[in-house]
Design goal:
Layout (H helix, E strand, L loop, with lengths): L1 E5 L3 H12 L3 E5 L11 H6 L6 E4 L5 H13 L5 E4 L5 H12 L4 E8 L4 H4 L2 E5 L2 H6 L1 H7 L7 E5 L3 H29 L6 H7 L9 H12 L15 H11 L5 H12 L6 H14 L16
Parallel strand pairs: 1-2, 1-3, 3-4, 4-5, 6-7
Antiparallel strand pairs: 5-6
Helix pairs in contact: 3-4, 8-11, 8-12
């Protein structure tokens, strides 16, 4: 199959390579000319037969919206756009409606696999009508991992990104649990080989997982994680997951706590914890830790 691929970053570039290894022809466009096969969207589309299939793999948000709008003005009836980024599922319905007015099909694809997907394959969760999904099925089959699992037509437009959103919310919770376990092991003198303990969990235990394997790799490279700051961003999907849990009255305490823990990681000295310390001092006379005089910021 011949396909256009917009966005050749870490994942997009590897997806191009995996598709080519499977015998597909990929014409890739990226603003970075060093990685692009062509210099413009028009040139990319000019090299594709009709009906055209174009996979968009750019950062979620306005960049994705702009790219899809631009493609929509260049494509024809019967062509298909696949959004493989981490877009919010509500955007998918807007894109599908706008493109549908011109007879252009739209598929939203939640993609998991990261930088390891080139060799391991990408787990795919797609949304769209069956006829449109079928036009790109050979591409999905080339990208997915080997075996029966790893691909699902999750439902209509929006279902793929909704599924990926929840997937990432779960990921937040799993990572936080492993991180808290690591900190507890490292905080005591009971366990002498913390990396060894965590590695031992990767075989035969009920908590083994690929994420745990990745933590082992991180600790092998930096046993005490001295080279990493304890600052963690969130890409948006964790927040969206919690918002949907609220909208649907679904209790999600683990994922919510994991998201809030990321917020706490960005505070050098938590104002909330300062207030707690002050309150303990007021009602119980508990000692507080004073800020050193030289650390107090002088007024401008």
């Amino acid at each position: 199959m011949e396909i256009g691929l917009v966005g050749l970053g870490r994942m997009g570039g590897n997806m191009r390579e995996r598709l080519r290894r499977s015998g597909h022809t990929v014409i890739g466009y990226d603003p970075n000319p060093e990685v692009a096969d062509v210099s413009s969207l028009e040139e990319m589309l000019g090299g594709l037969p009709s009906p055209k299939v174009v996979w968009v793999m750019v950062p979620a948000g306005e960049i994705t919206r702009t790219t899809i709008r631009s493609l929509g003005e260049l494509l024809d009836e019967g062509d298909v756009i696949i959004d493989g980024g981490n877009s919010r599922w509500t955007d998918d319905k807007v894109h599908a409606a706008e493109l549908g007015e011109r007879g252009i099909g739209f598929v939203d694809a939640g993609v998991s696999g990261g930088v390891w997907g080139l060799d391991n394959g990408y787990a795919l969760m797609v949304g769209g009508d069956p006829e449109t999904v079928a036009k790109a099925q050979t591409v999905f089959d080339a990208l997915r991992p080997e075996g029966e699992a790893g691909f699902v037509h999750a439902g209509p437009v929006g279902a793929g990104h909704f599924a990926k959103m929840v997937h990432n919310g779960i990921e937040y919770g799993l990572m936080q649990a492993y991180a808290e376990g690591y900190e507890l092991l490292a905080a005591t003198h009971v366990v002498e080989d913390v990396p060894g303990v965590i590695k031992s969990w990767t075989h035969g235990t009920v908590i083994r997982s690929w994420l745990l394997d990745l933590l082992v790799l991180a600790l092998e490279a930096d046993p005490e994680l001295d080279q990493i700051r304890g600052y963690v961003d969130d890409s948006g999907e964790g927040r969206w997951t919690i918002e949907e849990a609220i909208n649907n009255a679904v209790p999600a305490p683990v994922m919510t706590a994991a998201l809030f823990a990321r917020f706490a990681s960005r505070q050098d000295d938590s104002p909330a914890m300062k207030a707690v310390a002050a309150l303990r001092s007021q009602f119980g006379g508990h000692a507080v830790t004073k800020v050193a005089r030289q650390e107090v910021e002088k007024p401008a």
